[in-house]
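ok so for the tutorial part 2 we go from a plain amino acid sequence to predicted structure tokens. step 1 is just haveing the sequence, like this:
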Amino acid sequence: MVEDYERRRWPRQAPSIPQLLTYLMDQHDLTRADLAPLLGGAGRVSEVLNGKIGLSMTMVRRLRERFGVSADLLIPDGRRRPAAA
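step 2 — the prediction. this is what the tokens look like for a chain of 85 residues:
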């Protein structure tokens, strides 16, 4: 009963891309400059971390390979392909 209440009261939400990247940077002791080769330059890092632009598929692939995270975390729901039936 408590678990059901907590699930309804505080549903889990996927982190935003800036939140996820900030977490990964912290866990791997990286700076914004360290992300530049993965995201295409310092300007792109700033735009992504400020939420101004989303990740391209190239960025997703690079981040997935570098951090070993699922691409599902890096691709917003609206861009994911529907599962094959």
